[in-house]
Amino acid sequence: MNDSQIKDQDLEKLSAEEEAFRSSIGTMDKKGKRQWVFPKKPSGRFTVYRTWVAYFLLAFLVIAPFVKLPNGNPLFLFNIPKGEFIIFGFPFFTSDFFLLAIGMITTIVFIVLFTVVYGRIFCGWICPQTIFMEHVFRRIEYWIEGDRPKQMKLAKQDWDEEKIRKRLLKWTVFGLISFFIANIFFAYIIGSDALIDLIKEGPATHMSTFVGLIIFTGLFYFIFAWFREQVCTLVCPYGRLQGVLIDKKTIIVAYDFKRGESTAGRSKFRKGEDRKAVGKGDCIDCKQCVVVCPTGIDIRNGTQLECVNCTACIDACDEVMEKVNLPKGLIRYASEENIETGQKFKFTGRMLAYTLVLLGMILAINAFLFSRNDVEVKFLHVPGRNYKIEGQNISNVYQYTLYNKTNGDLNVRFELESHENGSIRILDGPPQIVLTKGNVQQGVVEVKIPMDDLSSYKEPVIMRALDEDGKVLDEYLTSFSAPY
Ligand code: SF4
Ligand code: SF4
């Protein structure tokens, strides 16, 4: 084999190594065995901002289920077994399913549009998985086991006194925090009052809830102590959708390969060297962006589905650039197009258009929420029954449906609003309906109107529901059949 053949072989091998990331994921070896990630503790501008956002969201998550509004409703409740949901203090019941469905569809469309423009900002800044993993569990790990080199050393060393002590301490703290998170999670499901009762009265009287609590504690422990970044890389459907949601104009955490590689590629830093003159890029191949990555990838390989846009590599690279006296931003928030054309990030017309659509969607769903009545009434003609002539009066029979979406019981009566001389009477019950919270009631009413007051064979009529103090709860416009 001559020299040039050996060189070709070396180049092929090198290229295969460089391209290996395309057919593998950073957290598994070739045999599919888990490769534990030991990310370096991040620090820098974005880490500080993200930490504040995370602390704010954590505080909100913990406090929200215990906050009670003046109407007695909690801020949030997702009681799936009872079909009772409270969102920002607004109660929703199974009768509001269409509103929940609209809300869910809006959320999905929102996420899609948001991702097209702003990439995975959600994953890096707001996602509960990232927040708990990076700002709670990983911080405890740094505190107990130290930074990356110490963690790697501990993982390799035998089970001596130090390793047993540190691991036991870590697992205990992880377990306690998982139990705490499970409690908060349950406060959202069963309500904070029920959770406080459970704590006061002890598990023996609420055994099934307690078993559920332990199962969720185990689940959280499993996710944050062992499964970790694999939630994002293997399980999360949102991460998997990135390939179809992002394009060249999407803002992502990106490596400026034009600047980093230049014409002669990246290479180690040499003091006093004029890198530009020899065509070397600004990347000094220090791999700080790689060791800091919580999903174990190399951002210099381009956009990858494992990247959760956590910004740790931006901070790591900025710190390096500062040390070697080169401009910051070799890794930054930018679109692929920005990098290719060398343009700086700017708020484009497309971003403005998508942002306006997103704001419009938020406004629309809020308008739905605020315009929704706590009590709803509907009157529909009983099928197969038309009008009836009774002397000088005409009568129609309707089936009523009454929804109580408040968190209290109501005494409801009906009134015919549109025809002063007419009347409305409940046929299958007392004149006042006692409607318990969150319930729906149906029944039959008879509406009677003097013939002289009618001017059409389909007379518009308005009926309304009032509470015991005479306050109008809701009204309904329908038609009244007459012989004209
Ligand atoms: S941290 Fe910056 S300079 Fe160092 S390898 Fe990564 S991109 Fe290159
Ligand atoms: S590549 Fe950078 S932004 Fe993406 S997950 Fe890794 S450290 Fe975070």
The biggest sheet amounts to:
5 strands, antiparallel
Helicity level? 40-55%
Distance from N terminus to C terminus (CA atoms, Å) equals 106 Å
User: CATH-wise, what's the superfamily of the domain at 375-481?
Assistant: Immunoglobulins
Number of strands: 14
Number of helices: 17
* Uncertain residue ranges: none
**Ligand roster:** iron/sulfur cluster
Radius of gyration: 32 Å
CATH architecture heading of the domain at 375-481: Sandwich
Q: What structural category characterises the helix and strand content?
A: alpha+beta
* Shape designation: elongated
Task: Provide mean pLDDT, rounded.
Answer: 88
Q: Per DSSP, what share of the residues sits in E-state strands of 2 or more residues?
A: 15-25%
The CATH topology annotation of the domain at 375-481 reads as: Immunoglobulin-like
Fold and architecture overview:
This protein is of the alpha+beta class. It has a domain at 375-481: Immunoglobulins (Immunoglobulin-like, Sandwich). Helix content is 44%, strand content 18%. Strands 6, 7, 8, 10 and 12 form a five-stranded antiparallel sheet that branches. Strands 11-9-13-14 form a four-stranded antiparallel sheet, with no helix packed on it. The relative contact order is 0.10. The mean pLDDT is 88. It binds iron/sulfur cluster (2 copies). One iron/sulfur cluster binds at residues 253, 292-295, 297, 299, 307-313. The site of one iron/sulfur cluster has 14 residues, from helix 15.
